[in-house]
Amino acid sequence: MLKKNILPLFIALAILILSLADPGSFNKINLTHFPHADKVVHLIMYFTLMLSLIYGNRTLLLRFSNFIILSMIPLLYGITIEILQKYLTSNRSGELLDAVFDLIGILLAIPVWLLLNKLFSSFLK
């Protein structure tokens, strides 16, 4: 089980590091200079995390309800990180809207996976 989830674990670690890092270090990146860029980043990070979880556990996802159960992992992870930002950092603030965009990314990964699986099922087995 751990072997199948190495990629999601690395992605989760990267999300943790980026989420607890000083936000001033990201202001130097020109790609993030538009309104609500951080929300788009949240969506992309959690979309990627969920997609990697789905891929790693694809043989277990025989029913749609399993997707919903699997989605609880990155959702609870994202909420936990928001709480950590609020109480453990002085340069970050936990925001409910960030968790909402985490959830949007997580939920968006499910139909994208279903579509990719339908189109490329022979490659994704």
- Calculate Rg over CA atoms: 15 Å
Total beta strands: 0
How many helix segments? 5
Helical content, roughly?
A: over 70%
How is the biggest beta sheet arranged?
A: none
When the domains are counted, the total is: 1
Low-confidence stretches: none
N-to-C CA distance: 16 Å
Structural class: mainly alpha
- Quick check: average pLDDT? 86
- Strand residue percentage: under 5%
Q: What are the secondary-structure elements, in order, as H or E? A: HHHHH
What key phrases describe this protein's structure?
elongated; 5 helices; 70% helix; 125 residues; mainly alpha
Please render the helix and strand layout as text.
Elements: H1 6-20, H2 37-56, H3 64-88, H4 96-119, H5 121-124
What does this structure look like?
The chain is an all-alpha fold and 125 residues long. The chain has one domain (3-19, 37-124). It is built from 5 helices and no strands. The protein has helices at residues 6-20, 37-56, 64-88, 96-119, 121-124. α1 packs antiparallel against α2 (37-56). It starts with 5 loop residues before the first helix and ends with a helix.
Summary?
The chain is mainly alpha-helical and 125 residues long.
